[in-house]
Design brief:
alpha+beta; Fumarate Reductase Cytochrome B subunit; Rieske Iron-sulfur Protein; four-stranded antiparallel sheet; elongated
Amino acid sequence: MMPVPFIDQFLFVGLPYLAIVTFVVGCVWRWSTNRFSYSSLSSQFLEHRQLYWGSVSWHIGILLVLAGHLVALIFPGLWSGLMSVKAVLLTVETVGAALGCVSLAGLVTLLYRRITSNRLQAVTTPLDILVVALLIGQVLLGVTTAILFPYGAYWAPGTVSPYLWGLLTLQPDATCVAFFPAVFKLHLVGAWLLVLLFPLTRLVHIVLLPWQYFFRPPQQVVWYAPRQGKQAHALSQQLETRRDFAKGVAGISVAGGLLSLGVFENLVRYFQGHRPDPKVETDLLEKKMVRLKQAAETRELELERQRNEIILVAKYAELQANKGKYLTDYSMAPALAFKGPDGWPLVISAKCTHLGCTVGSEMNGQGKILCPCHISYFDVKTGQPDAGAPAKAPLRHLEWVLIDAQGKEIARKSSGLPATNNPALLAQCSVYIVKPKETR
């Protein structure tokens, strides 16, 4: 497995934990110091028409999209089972893309309203504009991801869900998402930035849902005499204060309980101090040694590819027609070497053009190899994916050269191959991949 770059470790491990801690501490601090700011600060009395269309479109679209995301995260097995039905998958992706467009239209309307109304500009802060711009970018990235990389509802539970559960269980693993396309990585980073800014903006009103409206007894409005009205007002204020106190205690208790589930054990170990355990330390040392060896092997391969114009793949006799031999190409990506139908070598990239997974080495009866991550079949001879597969671009073929035991070049892919070959001569040759011209 290739090491994860430092920048990806920060963006997908460091930034999420920074955002989560800021979210919890910031929300509690704001509630304790300025609880009356826990509001969206409605500006409906300043302008109503555009607010109605923008707010309704935005809330309907984003709430349904987030509900789908949460179901996939909390119940990945159930979600994967549903998405394995193609009709359900297509319906979910179509509805999701449509809801994303509805959300985007609502956000654009709200931003336009903010920057064109003189009365609204007086109560608009730079942070308001920044949050709306971030939300627009986030929704736009989500819609773009859905269009460029279809079937995300099917493969996300196998990639994004393990990544998020790893963060929640304090076992982060950035490799689940570090090698995703840039647009998807930007979508994740944008989400963590919104979590980071959450306690500083109007978004905090989300955490205060008016549950009491669902459970309070029916109310009847009647006219009171002035003295009775004052007494009723004082009583209602007292009751409201008690309700606010109960809600605050319940919210802090639930948040503290959820947070303690993940960190309590680590805190106990921290205050207990280090307790040497020879077996544990031995296991850790062995894991470090394995990682160091893997890193050293990777660097040796990179150095070999920088120095040499050709790299040995295998002896020609070792190649098979239906099962490829794995190798590492000049870009440090996986590749496969086959014996082609015409008897000449056939070397093709094994890095799926969808999300970069390694394709399988077994060729089926139609001459195709499978990417097991998200089910894309590629024709070995042409490199083209099947119609309707998540992958759209073909696998590229690599330049190769045949050299005999005396070091003489027998054939090269780019020089035009004869229709027939000499099996006895080829059996004495070795197959090499050739360094691409643009990297020489």
